[in-house]
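pasting for the record
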Amino acid sequence: MPRTRGTQPYRCKSRYQTSGQVPHALFGISLLTELTIEWRVTWRPAQRRRAPYNGAMNEHPEAAGNAAHPYARLDPLTVLDAVDSVGLRGDGRLLALNSYENRVYRVGREDGPPVVVKFYRPGRWSDAAILEEHAFLAELEREEVPVVPASVLDGRTLHEHAGFRFAVFPSRGGRAPELFDPKVLEWIGRFIGRIHAVGATQPFRARPALNLETFGREPRAFLLGHGFIPPELLTAYASVLDQALDGVARCFDRAGDVAAIRLHGDCHAGNVLWTDDGPHFVDFDDSRMGPAVQDLWMLLSGERADMVRQLSDVLAGYEDFMEFDARQLHLVEALRTLRLIHYSAWLAMRWDDPAFPAAFPWFNTQRYWQDRILELREQVALMDEPPLWPA
């Protein structure tokens, strides 16, 4: 596709013909919808109004309208410009992938295979924290752990364009792992053990830890301080939330002084892609310091007997490469409780992003908070049960 340099804006010829723009409603909100666009591109120097790309989010999610959200400026032309800015020639094909915290696109190329481009949410991570994620992935790749590291382009992995920080990754496919198969669980456990063996060699310095404060008390303060809980449920929710956090504290006391290592951080089945050659792990965006069992418990499901069997299969592979401290089994339900609390606060903190009301319409309804009260009551009881096997 011919490109020339000049000072004229992009001219777009597509079935979404407007004034050279694709409507935002058609891009970025309808995730997993591919836009096949024929572009005739005339290059222009970047002249958009530039904003600080690491600015803070609004303190109150309801304080600003959707149009003020920083991702409102991330249109398809900006995505294509960003890809061009690092020397990759996009062919106009864009697929918005299923990501809410960041914006992630598979971008077709004229001169090579497609790439995945991740635009980091403004205000979430510092540059140093993002680069620690990239460095961890590079360490893992050097040890032949199957991960997808950020591509080094122009000598770096983190780039900036039009006020957005972004990174480019190879596009890797795969299917969901069959977690009912003991051999699959053992195989996954073997690779998580290898991730943790590397993760234990040094700490993160710019990324936070997963603990009672960051995943419990801070989310509690946000939820109770920003008017999300219906008044008639506020007392009940606050009470059970405090009981749950007390239960988490008791679990950590029973576990004792367990080691904190660099983790994947969000190691559920959706972030493990399976091929005929085995698994590979994606999306280390939530990587942080924490107990090793954080990367194991989300692979467990079903009744207690089922989880005991699944954990045994995972650890059969894990302990080939990394010793597991059984005291951490006191933390399984505590970490589940923290994730539930953090998840509600995450939705609340992101409610100014128009993608969130569209994708989670059930959030912040009366029924939602009633269900959370019941859920936390169940967790309070579960945290007082013995671990899956004696520590």
